[in-house]
């Protein structure tokens, strides 16, 4: 009897516990719904009125449907004073978690501007630190959806320490996992340094602003009156400062391109980029190139058209398209393999190398090398941009960044001289002398210390000056210099170019060379790290 009573009591106890779990599950669902809904419908409406999505709406656009898993969604701050003890919303103004993008794992943190203006406090920072550590451990990209008012002033130095932890992790993960920052609102003060440490920065016109000191401080200190958009808007950072890698008109288009970029990149530095389709024939001829590129070295053309003709399906993803437009850097596929394309742009400043172009290309080369993306360099460069401003602003130092990046790169490197390649700029653009694995050229190439006219004016200046017909003598000497030192096969005869190829065979030759270099294994000398020109 006793045993039966115990069994009966036990059954009633289990039934009571199950009822309690149901109640707790209902309570949990209500709490989660509160956390997801945010502070109020009014706050959500205010966000939408600015043309901005909420943090969770952005996450829905970024990730594959139903794949997002939140981390620490119920965390709350523990700060007191200045009324904070009465305001302890779930999540503390940032949504963190992971999901899939085109089926591959990606981590994200998204500031919720509706909560404390997205300002960072101790708990808020701890959530981001946790997520960054998880991304590093999982070997997966991390995307920051930034829309915050900076450090939470009410929490004082604790908030500043939170930023320090983010910066430290940005640097530790640099070259380990892809890091992407998407600026979807304000990003001011010290908060701006985290995006600056990441690999790519996306911005949206009209709603994104980044600056260290705002317009009011600028005017108080310097007397300059400036708007937030002009000081730190998307177009300013896209075209002038070079901080923004990509600029868009709306958030959804921006986030769709974040998805596209993630589909191209490897998840980490131990993996190769995903392979693309092989339905564009590797042996497809490029006869259009024979008419696209003018034979005259001084005549301009758009290098993007050359890129479209060569790469798979004519598709490429250009980085920093608005900044330093005399250089084009893009990700594309050749024979299904992801490559990084670096090319001079003859249609802008004749494709010269200047400070902006050197920095743009150096950063891109370093990224490709860090994530095992082969480099293809298309060369049509007349030299470095001359001028007092360039010299005084440090063209020597900044140009050395590109030289250093190429020399330090261990990925497969192919260079192709389309037309002119003069002076030090030719060397810097991944010539064979600094380590290009294979150096190719078209029969229109002119590889020399300088152009024939300039060379003749230097070498034969006395003869030309003393001539009865200086112009005729100059023309004769220019022709002689061209025929002796600048003919298309001069560099090939001396082993500085591995082969001169028919432009129509460019695609097939590049793909074949990439296949040959696929298993390249380059070693570097033992060292802690080099001393990159800064």
From TrEMBL:
<dbReference type="GO" id="GO:0009317">
    <property type="term" value="C:acetyl-CoA carboxylase complex"/>
</dbReference>
<feature type="domain" description="CoA carboxyltransferase N-terminal">
    <location>
        <begin position="11"/>
        <end position="277"/>
    </location>
</feature>
<keyword id="KW-0808">Transferase</keyword>
<dbReference type="InterPro" id="IPR029045">
    <property type="entry name" value="ClpP/crotonase-like_dom_sf"/>
</dbReference>
<dbReference type="GO" id="GO:0016740">
    <property type="term" value="F:transferase activity"/>
</dbReference>
<dbReference type="InterPro" id="IPR011763">
    <property type="entry name" value="COA_CT_C"/>
</dbReference>
<dbReference type="Pfam" id="PF01039">
    <property type="entry name" value="Carboxyl_trans"/>
</dbReference>
<dbReference type="GO" id="GO:0004658">
    <property type="term" value="F:propionyl-CoA carboxylase activity"/>
</dbReference>
<dbReference type="InterPro" id="IPR011762">
    <property type="entry name" value="COA_CT_N"/>
</dbReference>
<protein>
    <submittedName>
        <fullName>Methylmalonyl-CoA carboxyltransferase</fullName>
    </submittedName>
</protein>
<feature type="domain" description="CoA carboxyltransferase C-terminal">
    <location>
        <begin position="281"/>
        <end position="524"/>
    </location>
</feature>
<dbReference type="InterPro" id="IPR051047">
    <property type="entry name" value="AccD/PCCB"/>
</dbReference>
<dbReference type="InterPro" id="IPR034733">
    <property type="entry name" value="AcCoA_carboxyl_beta"/>
</dbReference>
């Amino acid at each position: 009897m006793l045993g039966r009573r115990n069994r009966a009591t036990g059954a009633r106890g289990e039934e009571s516990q199950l009822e309690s779990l149901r109640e707790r599950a209902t309570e949990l669902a209500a709490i989660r719904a509160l956390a997801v809904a945010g502070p109020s419908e009014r706050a959500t409406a205010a966000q939408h009125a600015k043309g901005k999505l909420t943090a969770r709406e952005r996450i829905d656009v970024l990730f594959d449907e139903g794949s997002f898993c939140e981390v620490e969604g119920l965390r709350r701050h523990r700060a007191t004073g200045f009324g904070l003890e009465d305001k302890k919303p779930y999540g503390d103004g940032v949504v963190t978690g992971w999901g899939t993008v085109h089926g591959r794992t990606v981590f994200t943190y998204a500031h919720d501007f509706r909560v404390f203006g997205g300002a960072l406090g101790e708990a808020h920072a701890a959530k981001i630190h946790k997520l960054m550590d998880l991304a590093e451990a999982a070997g997966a990209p991390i995307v920051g959806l930034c829309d915050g008012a900076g450090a939470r002033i009410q929490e004082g130095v604790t908030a500043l320490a939170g930023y320090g932890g983010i910066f430290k992790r940005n640097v530790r993960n640099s070259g380990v996992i892809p890091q992407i920052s998407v600026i979807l609102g304000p990003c001011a003060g010290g908060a701006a340094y985290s995006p600056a440490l990441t690999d790519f920065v996306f911005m949206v016109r009209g709603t994104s602003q980044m600056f260290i000191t705002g317009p009011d401080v600028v005017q108080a200190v310097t007397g300059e009156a400036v708007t937030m958009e002009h000081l730190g808007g998307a177009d300013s950072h896209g075209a002038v400062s070079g901080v923004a890698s990509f600029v868009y008109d709306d958030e959804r288009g921006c986030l769709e391109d974040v998805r596209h970029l993630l589909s191209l990149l490897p998840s980490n530095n131990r993996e190769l980029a995903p392979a693309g389709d092989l339905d564009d024939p590797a042996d497809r001829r490029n006869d259009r190139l024979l008419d696209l590129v003018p034979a005259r070295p001084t005549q301009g053309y758009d290098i993007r058209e050359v890129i479209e003709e060569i790469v798979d399906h004519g598709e490429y993803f250009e980085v920093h398209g608005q900044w330093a437009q005399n250089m084009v850097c893009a990700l594309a596929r050749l024979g299904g393999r992801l490559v990084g394309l670096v090319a001079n742009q003859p249609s802008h400043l004749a494709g010269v190398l200047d400070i902006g172009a050197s920095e743009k290309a150096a950063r891109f080369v370093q990224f490709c090398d860090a994530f095992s993306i082969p480099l293809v360099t298309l060369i049509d460069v007349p030299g470095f941009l001359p001028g007092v401003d360039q010299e005084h602003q440090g063209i020597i130092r900044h140009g050395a960044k590109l030289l250093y990046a190429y020399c330090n790169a261990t990925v497969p490197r192919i260079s192709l001289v389309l037309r002119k390649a003069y002076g030090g700029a030719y060397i810097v653009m991944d010539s064979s002398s600094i380590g290009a694995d294979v150096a190719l050229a078209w029969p229109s190439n002119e590889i020399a210390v300088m152009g024939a006219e300039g060379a003749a004016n230097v070498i034969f200046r006395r003869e030309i000056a003393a001539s009865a017909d200086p112009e005729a003598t100059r023309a004769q000497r220019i022709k002689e210099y061209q025929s002796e030192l600048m003919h298309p096969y001069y560099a090939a005869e001396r082993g500085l170019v591995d082969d001169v190829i028919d432009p129509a065979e460019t695609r097939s030759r590049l793909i074949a060379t990439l296949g040959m270099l696929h298993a390249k294994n380059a070693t570097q000398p033992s060292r802690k790290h080099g001393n990159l020109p800064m």
